[in-house]
Write a structure and sequence with these properties.
With 321 residues, the protein is mainly alpha-helical. Helix content is 52%, strand content 7%. Bound molecules: adenosine-5'-triphosphate and magnesium ion (MG).
Length: 321
């Protein structure tokens, strides 16, 4: 097996949801036993699409509690935050010199995020954060990046930065690969990418009742016979997909159990599948406190910073600074 270093992360903008789980978190849980892994709380990237970081400390703590709830083990995984690692952030300067403004403006994910942003004007960090992500991945010489589909263009930027740096200054960086999960783009209730910022997500921390209420309110259609037809019945297909992922079964195989039961039977089945799936996470969450989460970050920040100091030293030496 190849010797990988795994790096990935999330913005502390709200609770993690099932989209994260099937896009990237499940892969992390599996990979933590196999490879060294870094998981980044991308706190500086919160202000790409909003003016203020909001309830940042609270969001950071609950993100780390989400990690512990899904079963990430801080003894195996280095969990750290941008704002605690100055040497990581300093990599942004040389890296920005390696990409053109035209390359930055072509990024389809950035375009989509700008379209969903509520800000009056696009800020410079929104425009350049894919290069910041290159610093995130390359500071630890990451080679494998478990992410959802929206992140593929960003991993491309990182590959470009690594290749160009090596060409100009000598071989310092590996060229990393993206790794997609079982469902690289899970849709939210009501359609579109399931996203923290779009109000269409089932949080991993949702209670049984909250989960039931969210699924009950999801739009469907009035046809009694339940079929899996992504093109013509996207809302129904979406719910079947969700149930299938939680049950570890193909969504097509679930329709027979529902038959002519209509939306209410479908929703009952989906609610049970999701609640069953989230049960062990809910239990594990109760075993950890906010103080535990802070300690996880204190330890992780220290380890990540040691790594970043070494890489920045190599970069400066390669560049002749
Ligand atoms: P925000 O709206 O605040 O940007 P988000 O839900 O898009 O939140 P991120 O923190 O930007 O979440 O993404 C974290 C990781 O989860 C990324 O690897 C991303 O690709 C993955 N991810 C997010 N949403 C989904 C989804 N709906 N399906 C699959 N993967 C997803
Ligand atoms: Mg996002």
């Amino acid at each position: 097996m190849m010797d990988h270093v795994v790096l990935t992360g999330d913005r502390p903008t709200g609770p993690l949801h099932l989209g994260h789980y099937f896009g990237t978190l499940a892969n992390r849980v599996a990979l933590q036993d196999v490879h060294p892994m870094y998981v980044l709380v991308a706190d500086y990237q919160v202000i790409t699409d909003r003016d203020l970081p909001g309830a940042i400390q609270q969001n950071i703590t609950s993100l780390v509690l989400d990690y512990l709830a899904i079963g990430l083990d801080p003894a195996k995984v280095t969990i750290f935050q941008h704002s605690a690692i100055p040497e990581l952030n300093q990599l942004l300067l040389p890296f920005l010199s390696l990409v053109s403004v035209a390359e930055l403006s072509r990024n389809p994910t950035v375009k989509d995020e700008i379209a969903h942003s509520t800000q009056q004007a696009v800020n410079g960090l929104m425009f350049t954060y894919p290069v910041h992500q290159a610093a995130d991945i390359l500071f630890c010489k990451g080679t494998l990046v478990p992410v959802g589909k929206d992140q593929l263009p960003h991993v491309e930027v990182t590959r470009l930065v690594a290749r160009r740096f090596n060409e100009r200054y000598g071989p310092v960086f590996p060229v990393p690969e993206a790794m997609m999960g079982a469902r690289p783009l899970l849709h939210g209730l009501g359609g579109g990418k399931m996203s923290k910022s779009r109000g269409n997500a089932i949080a991993l921390s949702a209670t049984e009742d909250e989960t039931a209420a969210l699924i009950r309110a999801a739009r469907t259609d009035s046809e009694r016979l339940i079929t899996f037809d992504e093109a013509n019945r996207p809302e129904v297909a979406n719910l079947l997909t969700l149930a299938g992922l939680c049950l570890g079964r193909a969504p097509e195989s679930i329709v027979d159990e529902i038959g002519n039961g209509g939306a209410s039977t479908l929703k009952r089945l989906v609610t049970e599948a999701v609640n069953e799936f989230l049960r062990p996470m809910r239990k594990r969450r109760l075993e950890h406190s906010a103080a535990d989460a802070r300690q996880v970050l204190t330890d992780g920040n220290e380890r990540a910073r040691e790594r970043a100091i070494v890489t920045l030293g190599e970069v400066r030496a390669a560049m002749g600074f």
